[in-house]
Design a protein that fits this description.
mainly alpha; single chain
């Protein structure tokens, strides 16, 4: 990251614009756009975890605006950025508490809940499969199995896809040795 780039200063400046002033509503849409610009700059500087936090802030702004499509998009982008940060930690063999992975799973789960609330079970199932595949590649078979099973439940209207997801869950169970 550039030494002259003040991430926290910019983040604080954007969040301070969101505070209510006397008889004045904050411009949440503008703040969302600014969080998006900050996230892009942080991605460019290869700081995925900070970019992920900016995407989370953007998702909160979109939630306030009632724009669920952009909220889900920001949540999924944040989740992917947190996964990228976790993979970098694993590749470098850095000791960690897997906080990036935990945050990524949380973001995916939030996006899945929003899709389910809007009766978009196919999109929710796609996100379940995405996180399950990532967890399986990280040898976290029991967690992957849960997400594959959830995908199968969401794919009730398409039996072939549901069977495929159940087969992947069974593969994880075999990999666990139980």
């Amino acid at each position: 990251m550039d030494r002259d780039f003040d991430v926290m200063g910019q983040y604080r400046a954007i969040t301070s614009k969101l505070k209510r002033r006397f008889r004045k509503k904050p411009n949440v849409a503008e703040a969302s756009g600014q969080f998006g610009i900050l996230a892009k700059e942080l991605k460019r500087q290869d700081c995925p975890q900070y970019a992920g936090f900016c995407c989370l802030a953007m998702a909160r702004c979109e939630n306030t605006l009632g724009n669920t499509t952009c909220e889900v998009e920001a949540l999924v982008e944040a989740a992917r950025l947190f996964l990228k940060a976790e993979r970098e930690n694993l590749e470098l063999k850095c000791p960690s508490f897997e906080e990036h992975l935990t945050e990524a799973i949380h973001c995916y789960n939030q996006a899945i809940k929003i899709h389910c609330a809007q009766n978009n079970s196919a999109l929710a199932a796609c996100l379940c499969l995405e996180i399950a595949d990532v967890l399986r590649s990280m040898n976290r078979f029991s967690e992957a199995m849960v997400h594959y099973q959830h995908a199968a439940e969401l794919q009730h209207s398409n039996p072939v896809d549901a069977l495929n997801s159940m087969g992947l869950a069974a593969s994880c169970k075999i990999d666990l040795g139980t």
